[in-house]
Structure formats: structure tokens, C-alpha cells
Amino acid sequence: MNTPSYKVLGLSILILLLSACGSSSSSNENPPPPPPNNSNEPGNDDSNGNGDSNGNDDTNGNDDTNGNDDETAGGWTLIWSDEFEGDSIDSSKWSHEVNCWGGGNEEAQCYTADPKNSYVQDNILHITAVEEAEPYCGSPRNQEDPAYDPTDTSACKPYTSARLRTKGKADWTYGRVEVNARMPSGLGYWPAIWMLPTDTVYGGWPHSGEIDIFEAFNPGVDEFTPANEVAGTLHYGFSWPWNQYTGKDGGGEVTFEPAANIWDEFHTYAVEWEEGEIRWYVDDTHIGTQNSDGWFTYYWGGQEIGYQTSKGGQPFDQDFHLILNLAIGSPWMGFPDATTTFPQSMEVNYVRVYECSADPETGKGCATVDPDITPVGGHAPLVEEWEEIVLFKNGVQSVDLGEFEDAPVINTLNPGFWSPDDSIASDPGFAVDGDTVWDVRFNSGVGSVFLTADDMAIDGLDAGVSFGGDNLHNRARQVGEFKFDLRVLEIAPGTKLRVKLDSGWPKVSFHEIEVPEVGEWAEVSVRFNTLQDNDIDWGSVDYTNVTNLFVIEPSGDGGATHVQLNNIRIVCLLSCDHGPVVAEVPMTDDLTLFEGGAVNAALGYELHQWSTGAPVTVGLTDALAEGTERGQVVDIQYTAPEGTNGIAFIQSPAPKDLSAFVGGKILFDLYVADYGSSTGNLIIEFHTPDGNGVADMGVPVAGEWHPIELNIDDFVGGNLGSVNTPFVIMPAWDAQGTGVHLQVDNIRWELP
User: Fold this and answer.
1) Where does 615-678 show beta strands of DSSP type E?
2) Catalytic residue chosen out of the listed positions 97, 106, 210, 277
3) Are strands 76-82 and 210-215 parallel, antiparallel or unpaired?
4) Counting beta carbons within 10 angstroms of the beta carbon of residue 68, is it exposed (0 to 12), middle (13 to 18) or buried (19 or more)?
5) pLDDT given at position 29
6) Fewest CB within a 10 Å sphere: which of 35, 190, 320, 720?
7) What are the phi and psi torsion angles at 135 (to 5°)?
8) Which one of 215, 274, 277, 481 is the catalytic residue?
9) Domains of the chain, CATH where assigned
10) Contacting residues for 343 by C-beta, under 8 A, at least 6 apart
11) N- to C-terminal Cα distance for the chain?
12) Which of 633, 648, 620, 627 is nearest to 728 (CA)?
């Protein structure tokens, strides 16, 4: 594996949609707060000059609304604001995020602190997106990443913009937050006003929640959403990619189309947030509600507790800070094209935060409610039911794996150990205080002990346990954990203990636990979702075939370590979805991957892209070249800046046994519309969990369709017995340049 970035190809590449959501309300007795300034032209006029609305006047001067008297109608008290007076951004209120991370959505901008991307002019904050003459380069990580390096310039993007936040300067639990702003318009623009938790009390995103006050996708363009639609969203729930959200297509919608275009006029976007409920508003029109009956979080309570399910208003019961940003594009909403104009800005007239004077602790008693608004359904709180797979309890246990061909499958685990110097003493039948425990002495501080699911001794089944689905989406990975009792009787200085899931070397994942107090029994929990990949040889556990269901070993400089274990279980919310490993049956028919304008979805195949910079654009479109009658083909365009790399590929979640294709061929039709600035040959690959098969197909002539025929035996590397990605195409790595445009049709594997 020459390029570590290829590790992602064993996973389905998914996109996180940030969309809208809502819930119920409390009281309709109080009138709304004073209407904000919704003028279209914040210039030297009656709306934003020295006139009646936003000058030294009754609305935004030293007056009863936003001056020395901060009490408003409806019981809302102004506690924080920025009217953007003066000629610079107030650093006591805002900080810039600076990175080329892509926001977790493969966005095409770098965020900078450059004044061209964010500045104050005429009492208006401008967050401005710029199309750069040359790609702008910065860190591929955000500031929350411990590995963030502000001097890193390895990620390059074609656009720059700004993202401002109040984190570390101002945050709030409950209240009313409102922002008066005007938006840009065009394909690829994604303005957002939103909030994130300041302290991730319930864990990283989305466990601690996200509140999207406003976002618009491609404003002014009927692409992905209506041109003038605005959306509100909540994010919460399980870990990615099982994360939940309430919003557009996510368990209910909070969307609204104002009468005046959001790119022509200023509008006020707001949320009222109280204990157990969040409401959205546009120009004081109540557009949506969500309450805690429609949200939850599944969060990690630490090694001593394990997974927890939320109660009450969790996770939306902690301090959140405010974010203003203008992102550019994403594969699921589109990227700028020739119709998109740059530069453009999200213009912010003011930001105001209010506290409910009736009950600041809960935010209740100041609600502005439209009784016709029905709370969106969202995702109901979790039922606390757990499945336990007992591996060791006063002795080694048998695991019930359900049925195979109407026969029960029960596997008695086998305790084993490995040591390079035979220095381990392992006794799984050791008696202590009336219990039977597993007593292990690592006399030289190296080696491991494990519980193995041996051969099932049933035709059609392999050794091991399958946790269903694929390596990204299976239940055990998303909601599962180890729980076991551990007593450390001796441990060498500097030694740590690792717990592993093991599919056979190097397909191993691990977690280093916090060593409990020596001599005392402690219950230890280890979640599967954050197990680390093998750090010695490239690999990670294969959840579709786990052979060693529990492994423990010391790590460090060596030295005697003595531990005892009992009550070893795998625990999952509701179900672990485990069963036997069904032996793969080799495919005996030709394999069609793409034909007639469609990917072979019947076999689980999907079309994807992956890149180190701005995304490779992959989709279906009409074939190029005059006279062709092909219809829809796979269209691949490399628009990333020089120095970045990307691939297009067809993948299925589960590997398939293609060993029958030894001596066969990979066939497809190829049209090169443009080689752009690429200086390398075209490369075709197939990928497996154990490595990749690679073939160099040279430089076919551009401007015409070519039938391509590659002998599978000529591919270097790869394991045909387990292929999850049977087709990958790219210009040669590190020589891809930019501007490459390919089309591919009739992709198939042919038996010999």
C-alpha cells in the first residue's frame, strides 16, 4: 500500500446532509419581540443610515430596544449583540477558523482570516467567497483536531471564504438567537448560521448536538432545493454514519420560502431555545418546532460506565456557541459552474442574543408560538434494551449464532495465547473466592491471550462470527462495546493494556484502556466505534468475519504483568446482529458492473469518488462524441488543483469471491475528452481488504471511444478471493494534474 490515503476504499463513501428540523412549543400568551430591521438595502437610507430604523434612533441606537434598557416585549432580555459598528471585526467577540478541511462535507473552500474574506464596512459584516487565480493551500484538519498544524499547506482548494465563531468568547444555554442577514446567490453557495456545543459533554459530533438556525443550498438556483428556500436543522443521535438529524429528508422538515428573495433583501433568522424544545423563525414568522420527544443522543459515559442513552433535553442542555460561515459546494448539492459569480458575500447586519427573563435557567415563559405549527416527528428517544453475548463468565462460554439452513449454530470459544518466547501462563479455570476467572501472567510483558471462534464444523460455514452489514454500518461497530471485569495484580512501569477485536493479522483493531488500581476488581467498558486501526501493519478488524472475539495484551517496554478476567461480554443496544460466517461461493458467471446507463445495484454495487482535495466529479451523463448512441455513461472530471489526487470507483459493501476469473479479463469502453495537465498514464485497479491489483493502460488517444481489454493475470497484487471494489480508474498518482475528463461505459469482468 503505497498511499495511506487509500485506506478509505474499504468503506462506502457517504455524505452528511445538513438539513432542517423542528418540534413543539409552550405558551402563546406573550407578544413577539420587536420586529427586526428587514430592509433590503442597508445603506445610507432610512433603514441603515442616520434615519428612523438603524441609526441613532429608536431601533438600534441608545434607545429602549438595544441601548441602556435591554428588556423587550415578550420577556426577552438582550444579553449579547454585535451591531458591527466601526470598521473592523470585534476580536473580543469573534475568532476565525483557518483551514482547508472541507467542513466534513468535501466542500471546495479554504477558510482564512484574510480581510478580503471577512470585513466590516458600513456597519455590515461581509463574509466573502473568492475564486482564487491559483489554488489556496492550508491545513486539511480543523482546529479541533489534536493534529492540526497551522503551517500545514497540504490541502488545496479553488475558493477561499470565512468562518467566524464565538467559541471561547461567548456561549449560551437557552434563549433567543437572531441574525439579520442577506445572502449570496448562485450554484455552489452554502451560507449558514448555526451553533455547536462549546464543551462536547456527550462526545464528539453529533453526540453533543448541533443547532442549525439557518442554511440555504444554492440560493437563487432551483438545484437540490427551491431557489428561495431556507432550512433549519438539528443533528444528534448515534455516531457517524448512523447519525440522526431532523431537517430536510431527515425525520421532518423545517423549511420556509420568504416572500422576498433572501439574496435581494435582509431577513431575520432566529431560534427560540428552551429546555426540551427549539423553535425556528424567519422575520418573526414561526416556521417550525422540535421537542425532546423527537431527539436523543447515544453517548459514551467513560470506561467505568460505557454507553448511555440520553434523558430529558440531552444533548441540547449545554452551552453552545454561534458560527457564521459561507461554504462552497459539496458533492450532494453541487459545485459552482460558469453561471456562478465571484466574489459574493453573506452580509450580516446584526447578531443579537436574548435571555428569557421569566426563567433564565430553563428559557421557558417567553415563547412566541403559532398554534398551527405541529412539532416535527424527529427520532424518538431510545428504548434501553441490550443484548449481551457472554464470552466468559466463570469459565469459557458457548456463543449462540442462530441458525444456518434450519440447523442451530453454537460455537464453544477456545481460549488461546500467543507469545514469541513462550513466557505466558494462561489459566482460564483459576478459582478465586468461589468464582472461576481467567488468570494470565505475561512474564516477559509480551504476547496476548484471546477467545477464538473456531471452525464451526458445518459445511458452508467458515470459522469466526459475522456482525452483519459491512465494516462501516454494522450494529456492533455503531452501538456495541466490550464489558468485562478486570483485576490487575502486577504491571510493569510504563506498561499499558490493549483490548482488541481480531479478524486474523493484520486485520486487527484495538483500544488502550486506562489501567485500574492495582489489586482491585473494576468493570471496564471499551466501545467498538472508536477502536483504532492496527498501528504496526496496515489493517483493521473485519466485522463480517471476527475470529478472535476478545484479545488482551500488554504494550510498552516489557516487564511482568499479571491480570485476572471475568464476565467478558459484547453488549449492543437492542441487538448485535451477529451470526455465523457463511462461506463465500465463487462467482461462476460473467460480472457486469455498469451497462445500459446503470450500475449493477442488484449485486450491491455503487458508483463513488474519493480525493485528497476538491472532489472528483463522478456521475451519469450523455456520452460525448458525435454519432454515438450509448445514452448515459459514467462521466469523471478531475477539477481538483494541481498536487491533489483522486479516483472514481465501483464498490460493494461486502467482498465477493472472484477467484474464478483467474485468466479472465476486465473489459470496458473508454473516451478521453481531455487529459488536462496530467503527466501520467491511466491506471486501472481492483481493491480487496488484503491489497490492490494494479494495471497500467498507458495513454489512449483522446477524442474517440476505445474498447479496452485487460488481462486479469497482468494485474499486480490483489486477492481475487475477496474483491469489494472491482473497478477503479484514475490518472497516475501524483501526476494527475487538473482538467482530466473521462467517460466510461460497459464495465464488466469476463470469465476465461
Assistant:
1) 617-622, 632-638, 646-651, 665-674
2) 210
3) unpaired
4) exposed
5) 30
6) 35
7) -55, 140
8) 215
9) 28-356 (2.60.120.200), 393-582 (2.60.120.430), 591-750 (2.60.120.260)
10) 116, 128, 129, 130, 131
11) 28
12) 648
pTM above 0.70, yes or no: yes
Q: Is 277 a catalytic residue?
A: no
Q: What is the pLDDT of residues 234-263, one digit of tens each?
A: 999 999 999 999 875 556 789 999 999 999
Burial of residue 377 (CB within 10 Å: 0-12, 13-18, 19+) is middle
For every residue of 296-317, DSSP letters joined together read: -BEEE--TTT-EEE--TTTTTT
3-state secondary structure of 627: coil
C-alpha cell at 155: 490541502
Strands (E) across 255-406 are located at 255-256, 267-274, 277-282, 285-291, 298-300, 307-309, 320-328, 344-356, 386-392, 398-404
Query: How many residues belong to the chain?
Result: 752
Q: Quick one: DSSP state of residue 284?
A: T
Model confidence over 125-173: pLDDT tens digits?
A: 999 999 999 999 999 999 999 999 999 998 999 999 999 999 999 999 9
Helix or strand holding residue 230 (H, E): strand 230-237
Q: Could you give phi then psi for residue 578, rounded to 5 degrees?
A: -100, 155
- If you ran DSSP here, which 8-state letter would residue 295 be given? -
Catalytic annotation present for 490: no
Q: Which residues contact 406 (CB under 8 A, 6 or more apart)?
A: none
Beta strands in 514-663 (DSSP E): 521-527, 532-533, 548-555, 561-573, 579-582, 591-595, 598-599, 606-611, 617-622, 632-638, 646-651
Q: What torsion do the CA atoms of 522, 528, 531, 534 make, to the nearest 10 degrees?
A: 110
Contact 641, 135 (CB under 8 A): yes
Angle (CA) 316 387 575, round 5°:
75
Nearest C-alpha neighbor of 136 from the set 190, 99, 107: 99
Cell triple for residue 609?
Answer: 469518488
Per residue in 573-631, pLDDT (tens digit) is: 999 999 999 988 889 999 999 999 999 998 889 999 888 766 688 988 889 876 667 88
One-letter amino acid of 589: D
